[in-house]
Amino acid sequence: MTDTVPSPAEPVPSVADLVARRYAFAEPDPAHTAALAAARERSGATGPGTIEAMLGHRSCRRFTGEPVDDALLDVLLAAAFSAPSKSDLQQCSVIVVDDPERRQAIADLIPTMPWIQECGRFLLFCADSGRIRRVAQQAGTPFANDHLDAVLNAAADAAIHLASFIWAAESLGLGTCPISVVRNHIEAVATAVELPEQVFPLAGMCVGWPERLLPFSPRLPPTVTVHRDRYQPDQVAETEAVASYSRRRTAAGRPVPPDQQLDVDRWGVADPYGWAEEKARMVARRERDQLARFLADQGFGLG
User: Fold this and answer.
1) Are 128 and 203 in contact (CB under 8 A)?
2) pLDDT tens across 263-299, in order?
């Protein structure tokens, strides 16, 4: 089941409603709306705005086919590159894949995701440690930290910029869908767009005018994901909270029939088949064993 794009005539839900929906809570907490209103009054900000847009996020896999023109894409990328960058090293690069053959080569690697070809534009957000190394070389200084943190720094930059691109695009009514599966085929994707050493694709990005958005996807409750002062590994409480979340999420959506459950030949048919069961089966699939080798081949020190 999929939801249609909301009509402009529909009432705007309150922040309390959006938070409750995001966590699949039964009742909204009016304190959330009041807190946001107080913050906006203090700062002079007007709403609804960024917070509502982020809380209302839904991915898009059905696009109208209308183009996203270069000028608009330039603005979106400028917004994305306005995001914070570790030590201002600016270790993100974006490949706009417009060449039909290159885009087709990537799409052919992932035939279960036809939206890679159907979206208005397809991008690759890349972790780029190579540029700052060249800057250092040109300045006659060594790149002294060629170890695992160089990978993490560049990947974090790319991830932050990717998220910023999503919020920028969705603020204008565009639909987005990040594609992490490009890392399953990291060598072929890197070859398709001729990535140099010390650069790797973190994720693809579909962007375009939405024909239909995916259903709203509730998230794990903050009792599981937010910790106060220290990490609190109460496994009993976590297990209960995840089970409750999984039941709420299933109730808010629709049952998954046996032919759509993951790896039934290995794990059998589950009833109920909720979030926890599906994700447990998903992470039981081994994949991306080639990443460390690829990064080493790209010139990263992983020690």
Assistant:
1) no
2) 999 999 998 899 999 999 999 999 999 999 999 999 9
Q: Considering only CA atoms, which of 221, 39, 252 is closest in space to residue 15?
A: 39
**272: preceding bond cis by omega (within 30 degrees):** yes
Residues contacting residue 299 through CB under 8 Å, at least 6 positions apart? 130, 197, 198
Residue 142 C-beta-side C-alpha neighbours within 13 Å: 3
pTM over 0.70: yes
Of 185, 200, 215, which residue sits at a domain end? 215
In the sheet with 121-128, reading across from the earlier edge strand, the strands are 92-96, 121-128, 199-208, 175-179
- How far apart CA 54 and CA 73 sit, in angstroms, is 20
* 140 located within any domain: yes
Measured CA to CA, the distance from residue 198 to residue 250 in angstroms comes to 42
CA–CA distances in Å: residue 248 to residues 85, 175, 214: 37, 26, 18
142 belongs to a structural domain: yes
State whether 209 and 70 are in the same domain: yes
Cα–Cα distance for residue pair 197/215, rounded to 1 Å: 39
Radius of gyration of the chain, Cα coordinates, nearest whole angstrom: 21
Taken in order 165, 166, 167, 170, the sign of the CA dihedral is positive
> Running DSSP on this structure, what letter comes out for residue 3?
B
Would you place residue 47 in the very low, low, confident or very high pLDDT band (cuts 50, 70, 90)?
low
Residue 240 neighbours by CB under 8 Å, 6+ apart: none
